[in-house]
């Protein structure tokens, strides 16, 4: 098991969210394995059926387990009605006055919202677990492997590339079956299956829902709802366009980034395509990887950073803008080159007068630190440290 950055607080109940396969259950088993814990795995069909018929049975178990201080419920979105029981148990101590705390995992925010997860507001910390970061991988980290196959923990249990590819294809099929179709999130699987492929191919591009709708044969509102499903199941996130005016920002289109490069490549059907340095495909994969590293590290640090991008009408672009509370914004250009030159930071340097006091960086594979036209070029690993991550 790789050591995870996310730490579990003992002072409050916990709702741990994240896609399937990121290691939520493994993390909780490692943390609670040596203590008396009531463990409920709702991926077991019999248990799911039992609690669906009678959610109140959970409270009876808790009251009977006097030595248990923690209850772990895996994939609680399978039986959202249990949230009512959890809420009551947090508020009301057991006979004898001993309170119980809960550690719950979930992979579908959509079902949790329908299950009134807001009842737990302020009563349970909400944290997210992502695929492995480069720091968590430690000596096992290899950039080329992460760009091609992503960083889901199970990927690193295989050594053969063919096995890694097979796992990622199976992961994509499992998601379709278990997270979407079996949960009745959508009415027709065919258009959504085509949407996933198109959305994966458009990873990191400015969204044009109308074009995607034409490609898969649905209306643009349906495409927008599909992207909401991906966000609710933690399979990706929107990177909003930057603008000083919130009103104007809402008139522009966001980018959508998938949560893992390997899953993205599996859905796009490009797992067998080599990623060769100094090509456009390699550059896009590197940008995807670095943005994920930044977003994951920020979430684990809980520093309230906000992320956006900027593109002008003449296609000048800032890959990532980070609003940092109490600190100047950070403007980041991401280049896969192993030798940063003035041409690589030309767009970024021309934006500097529009962001007085901002810190400007170029993150790349170049091992040398250098300052070019007001931009600090650093190796991407050092860039995370520069950002305070």
What does this structure look like?
The protein has 389 residues and is α/β, with parallel strands linked by helices. The protein folds into three domains: 13-128, P-loop containing nucleotide triphosphate hydrolases (Rossmann fold, 3-Layer(aba) Sandwich), CATH 3.40.50; 134-274, Arc Repressor Mutant, subunit A (Orthogonal Bundle), CATH 1.10.10.10; 281-386, Trna Endonuclease, Chain: A, domain 1, CATH 3.40.1350. 40% of the residues lie in helices and 17% in strands. The chain contains 16 helices and 13 strands. The chain has helices at residues 24-32, 45-53, 57-64, 82-91, 109-114, 134-137, 143-149, 161-181, 189-201, 209-216, 220-232, 246-249, 261-268, 280-301, 346-351, 380-386, and strands spanning 13-17, 37-41, 70-74, 101-106, 124-128, 236-241, 255-258, 306-311, 317-323, 330-334, 359-364, 370-372, 375-379. The two termini are 23 Å apart.
Condensed summary:
It contains 16 helices and 13 strands. It is α/β, with parallel strands linked by helices.
Descriptors for this entry?
3 domains, Trna Endonuclease, Chain: A, domain 1, Rossmann fold, about 400 residues, single chain, eight-stranded mixed sheet, Arc Repressor Mutant, subunit A, globular, alpha/beta
Shape annotation: globular
End-to-end Cα distance, whole Å, is 23 Å
Order of helices and strands: EHEHHEHEHEHHHHHHEHEHHEEEHEEEH
Assigned CATH superfamily of the largest domain = Winged helix-like DNA-binding domain superfamily/Winged helix DNA-binding domain
- Beta strand count: 13
Binned, the helix content reads: 25-40%
Structural class: alpha/beta
Q: Enter the CATH topology name of the largest domain.
A: Arc Repressor Mutant, subunit A
Assess the beta-strand content as a share of residues. 15-25%
Give the strand order of the largest sheet, numbering strands 1, 2, ... along the chain.
7-6-8-9-10-11-13-12
Name the average pLDDT. Answer: 90
Could you describe the largest sheet, including whether it forms a barrel? 8 strands, mixed
Radius of gyration: 22 Å
| Name of the CATH class of the largest domain | Mainly Alpha
How many structural domains can be distinguished in the coordinates? 3
Number of helices: 16
- CATH architecture grouping of the largest domain: Orthogonal Bundle
